[in-house]
Amino acid sequence: MDNGVSGLLxxxxxxxxxxxxxxxxxxxxxxxxxxxESIGYIFSIGAVGAILGAILYQxxxxxxxxxxxxxxxxxxxxxxxxxxxxxxxxxNLKFWxxxxxxxxxxxxxxxxIGRLKWMPFFIGCNALSFGY
Length: 132
Fold this sequence. Notes:
By secondary structure, the chain is mostly helical. The chain has helices spanning 3-22, 33-61, 66-88, 99-130.
């Protein structure tokens, strides 16, 4: 094995083990599992948004020029950031949406736009790696 690769693997092993030691927490019997379940639900719906972003790119956006695509994705990413402001100002209640539902929808949109943002780079790296 190359010295550079073994050095990187050593560094990663040390980081993982030190994180495990630092973050070790004893079992807490009275934890609020309802909150943990709701966070897991939010992230699982966010994963659906990421899948939708990949499908949208594959079916509709893969033939668009990269500069135009990145411009529009960044614009939508900035607009999605305004959802946090709407939540903080409690404007979502004017649309009869609970905070929980608004957060779930916002996470799905965030993951979808994030996937769209990285897809041109993934495709470009794949083309460079395999010579397509």
